Amino acid sequence: MSPVLVLLLIAGLSEATGRVLPLVARRPGMSRPVVVGLLLTGTLIESAVIALWPPTAWALAEALQSDPLSGSLAWTPSLVAPLVLAGILAFPWLGPALHLLLLAAVGATLAGPLADASGLSWVAAACCLAVAGFGLASAVELFRRLVARVLAFRVRDSLA
Fold it and tell me: In angstroms, what CA-CA distances link 114 with 35, 57, 80, 125, 130?
């Protein structure tokens, strides 16, 4: 397994843990298989979202250019390591302000390579990364809320 994939999985696990821990704290009677299933599913989803951040920003950068770009932006161990640190230091629910600050720092770190590879200014590259990150996070949050509503509806129907 490549170091980038391992780091992406660790970052996804820390993100998923930050989402699942408050749920476990609110519902102490949850079974271990359910918690493990939530952690594994959350890890895969969060890792996929993190992995899609640079390609999505690259696609936005291509949309801003008049001619097609050659190359791409991909995670490297040095670029993904601060993201792992951000996930470990500031779980999304335990420290949202610190988490957002660290994600902004990772985005700023990615803006340089994106600007160099695409020919955009650093500010335009940072905007592409911000829009891509916000769009991906919004899509995951909407999906998460939809699944929660469907599950709550099923539980309500089974109790009736």
Answer: 38, 8, 14, 6, 12
- Tell me which H or E stretch contains 106: helix 96-118
Rounded CA-CA distance 7/17 in Å is 15
Q: What is the pLDDT of residues 105-137, one digit of tens each?
A: 888 888 988 888 888 899 999 999 999 999 998
pTM across the whole model: 0.80
Burial class (CB in 10 A: 0-12, 13-18, 19+), 26: exposed
Cα dihedral value 61, 62, 67, 71, nearest 10: 100
pLDDT in tens, 1-44: 688 888 888 888 888 887 787 778 887 787 888 889 888 998 99
| CA–CA gap between residue 58 and residue 8 (Å, rounded) | 18
